[in-house]
Write a structure and sequence with these properties.
Largest sheet of chain A: 9 strands, antiparallel
Helix content of chain A: 25-40%
Oligomer: homodimer
CATH architecture of the largest domain in chain A: 2-Layer Sandwich
Number of helices of chain A: 11
CATH class of the largest domain in chain A: Alpha Beta
Mean pLDDT of chain A: 94
């Protein structure tokens, strides 16, 4: 039986482990919190720091293969482990590229993948020289996550909001639609594409707020999207599962925004709404099984449950009853003991044949559920 | 957060825990094997004997509610726990009735639920007096499980095969179809019926071998089946989930064979093929949430994976690849380290719009998969 480790024990690890229990695999998780969402669902939990070289190396030496829940792991340890024969999904070279917004943009450019025009600014002085490049989005090279490390700079008056560290300054794209496509690729290079999802963000939190699948896009644009997503994934030369986030402008031009080389928030709806979920699919990749069926069973909407403003401490959910009495609404509570404003605490997937019905139910669910503290 | 315990840590517990991770619930399992299929998927594992009064009582005192994976638990401890305010799904009174084939048959009779005619035989001498009752099925009053404790007695020559202990002698029903229906019932008495499944048994092992859902039965018989299943469940006056196994003869008469007051092998297909699975449904009952949607997404077939003859020891699966490349075939391996002939090691669910396609795929999967030892 293969031994497979997950670096990180949050909700992605939790849902991976729910899916793992279908297969013959011995599971390992490392996280610095023994009460994290995934801790009680693995065979072996290790209390350790996923950013620490020694911790990651020691954890990796005990397994046949490793995957990640978050990019922010010690890549040097993974490189050494890979050299010593441990399989890593995705390969450390991919993590290196993706962890740095600068290397990631250069990756797209060097592989002829359409992405917003950009310049690198190493400090605020270099940024000040880029007034002609505005309006633009300034993204911190390393360490940004879930909206942190991203600033919109519309005019030269706002330039001082920028980062004084190595960053990417991207031309502002007037977004018509924001979409994401999950793509799995196995060791043989076989790929499986999920239908793209369409996203609506909460501008305040910059968290995924609402999501529909399949995205409503014209067939000719869908073909472009799929070709681009495949190109992103294939050029990484690494097995795994990837979420390719793309922007579509009014002209139907498609730009890759960023890529997550792992299971992803934008794929949560696949648990109920697709035959093979993103979590099932990653196990198929790691266990060398045939890829699964990515088709949707029904169209779906996904609503993130985030901690309400003004509430911190032991979490209390309100309105779960209202959600669960909605036909084909599925709740996932991540088991985090403490809530705080904006923290991802769970999600709800709703399935329905009819898009208007989905929108209606998603809105109703957002209104009826509350994530507060005791 | 409610604390809920499961007595027994086999595959039913395992699949219950996969579903539990969607909800805010703290899970507990007791089993006498720390490497059992469910041990690593709960928050708290207790090594203990589910048949032992002290073990069950102590375990139950640490939780808000209890459920079971198998009927063969210490009911006296559960009765005391119920008196002390612990919720038990199903109620101990139900377990008492069901654990005894004699009380179970009397329950059907006293509630006007159709079941095969029967007499009670307390020993082999009493059995010998029942020659006119043959052909019949002799069922041991207590302790039978998965085909053990059942003997078919066709003629008086076979009467010595019978049990010399309190047993039920049932008139042999010429079975046209064997079906099972899952029914959930919550604390308010609201019910949810899954479509009945149709079963084909392996006569040698007397294990569920093949199963189709929804069963192919005429509407007028379906109505009868549903009314009977509801009557079985409602008269128990207990929340929980129940598998009501029924026989249909050539005249379309329906007889209750037996009832399992818990999640059941005949409901495994609901994980993928129905919107709310039997496991999801039991959590909804225990957490006082609205009941889920029992409709099927697609028709399904379910194949049990049992240990092949001639192989005992550390398990090795062959042909999983062949199964997993079948469109919409889903594998569940229960994580048991050791196989032995006839042991339930996993199952496969196949979904397809077309019954012939299902039959074809189910047969192909049975032929391609093997459960051997290293």
């Amino acid at each position: 039986m293969l031994k497979i480790g997950i670096l990180g024990g949050g909700q992605l690890g939790r849902m991976l482990l729910q899916a793992a229990a279908n297969y013959p695999v011995e599971t390992f998780v490392m996280e610095n919190d023994p009460e994290c969402p995934a801790a009680h669902l693995c065979h072996h939990f290790t209390n350790g720091d996923i950013k620490n070289y020694e911790d990651v190396y020691r954890f990796g030496k005990g397994v046949d293969a490793l995957t990640i829940e978050i990019e922010n792991v010690n890549v040097e340890a993974l490189e050494k482990l890979e050299n010593e024969g441990i399989k890593i999904y995705p390969r450390p070279s991919v993590l290196k590229t993706i962890k740095s917004k600068i290397l990631q943009k250069e990756y797209y450019r060097s592989n002829d993948i359409p992405t917003a025009a950009f310049v690198i600014t190493n400090n605020i002085n270099e940024l000040r020289l880029q007034q002609d490049f505005l309006p633009a989005v300034h993204k911190l090279g390393e360490g940004g996550y879930d909206g942190r490390g991203v600033r919109i700079i519309k005019t030269k008056d706002e330039i001082e909001k920028g980062f004084d560290k190595p960053s990417v300054l991207e031309k502002f794209i007037p977004v018509h639609k924001e979409i994401a496509q999950m793509v799995a690729i196995n060791d043989k290079g076989e790929t499986a594409l999920y239908p793209p999802v369409e996203m609506i963000f909460d501008p305040r939190l910059n968290l995924l707020d609402f999501q529909f699948c399949p995205a409503e896009i014209e067939t000719r644009i869908l073909w472009k999207v799929e070709a681009i997503a495949l190109s992103v994934v294939r050029n990484f030369k690494s097995p795994g599962i990837f979420a390719v986030e793309m922007l579509i402008d009014k002209n139907g031009d498609v730009f890759v925004n960023e890529t997550a080389p792992r299971v992803h928030n934008s794929g949560h709806h696949t648990i109920e709404a697709h035959y093979s979920s993103q979590f099932d699919m990653l196990w198929r990749v790691m266990l060398n099984y045939p890829l699964g069926n990515t088709e949707h069973i029904l169209p779906s909407a996904m609503v993130n449950l985030v901690g309400d403003d003004g509430f911190s401490g032991e979490v209390k959910y309100e309105g779960l009853d209202e959600v669960l009495k909605t036909e084909n609404a599925f709740v996932h509570i991540y088991g985090k003991k403490e809530t705080k404003p904006g923290r991802k605490m769970g999600h709800v997937t709703i399935m329905s044949r009819d898009k208007q019905d989905l929108l209606h139910k998603a809105n109703k669910i957002r209104r009826s559920i509350a994530v507060k503290s005791v």
